[in-house]
Amino acid sequence: MGNLLSSAVLSIIGVIAYSLFGISFVAGMVFSVSGFDILTIASYMTMAVIIPASAFYFATISYSLVVSGSYAMVSEVVWRNMFKFSTYFRHGFRLLRKTIQQLTLLCLFYVPVTLLLFIFFPYHIETGVNNQILLYGSLSLVSLLVFLVTLALLYAPVILITEERGPWQSIKDSFHLFTKRFGTVLRSAAWLLAFFFLYPIALLPGGVLMIMGEENEILTIIGMLVFIVTVLVITLLLPFLQIAFQVSIVRWYKLQLRSFIVDNDADPGPWGEQNTYGLMDPESLKQTPTQGS
Fold it and tell me: Which residues of 198-235 are buried (b: 16+ CB within 10 A; e: fewer)?
């Protein structure tokens, strides 16, 4: 339900953004022909900067709700072996601001890696270097860096939600786990690696049939149908795969990694005490323990 809500919001944002983009483009052309240079510049600036930035901002808010809500719900499952549907939205909105701040910081870590792409590709194009080993080596290096950055930041959302820590502190804690318990963090990312490998493998049969169907129209049609059905099945399974991945990560964090972040062995966790964490279910607080019986 959270993914459906987020997808609906993103679709609305996309429609509005493309509509405003088109209006700004047409307005810029009209003002350009009419000789209104200032209005022309303003229209194109709106089209090129303001609209994409605004769309990205609102999309970040929508995605942040998915992150905060799903991790809050998953932490309830891991710590209490149960969940309430209201947990997703109640704690999702409560932790939304911190999640937005953290996602913004996480994006900044990928900026240097992204800049490497703008260095490697123009170099190969401008100098005419045809060395395939150098090209693929550069791409492999960038891919490795992206993977390592993702691994280092993997537990930042988990720590943010479960430990009620700040956006930057949870990132530092995630880096601490990455440096001190690299092997454990790497093994816990098996779900993530499996998804990246299984997704293209699942699409492979349909693609092969379409390639083979260059001389046979029936194989082309069958390949297209297989490809479309595979994409639809993956799309339907995606929310469940996401939750399975998050449950695995949060459970691994609780059992294998949390002791390296929390110094107090008696710390009850996010669903243990009202005064320690904000995730405690308000209804359970009304139930006071009784003596005897």
Answer: eeeeeeeebeebbeebeeeeebbebbeebbeebeeeee
